[in-house]
Amino acid sequence: MTEPEVRPVASSVNPTVRRRRLGQELRKLRELKGMTAEEVAERLLVSQSKISRLENGRRSISQRDVRDLCGVYGVEATASSIR
Fold this sequence. Notes:
Blueprint: H1 15-32, H2 37-44, H3 48-55, H4 63-73, H5 79-82
Helix pairs in contact: 1-4, 2-3
């Protein structure tokens, strides 16, 4: 399996656009792992609706959420990539 392309998110982009873009990338990672939102939610002890809201950009995402999701997907998240 190849690693997905990582593209920097410009800081001048609208926060809503950045949130939606991050959600799209997280969904791609989940799908590359062959996992359902329900499986991810179960592993993280959160609701499936939270995973859905994060992936759809309808909810702000914390650094902890990104770190936890990247851990489930086997991707290294550095502080500079989360900011």
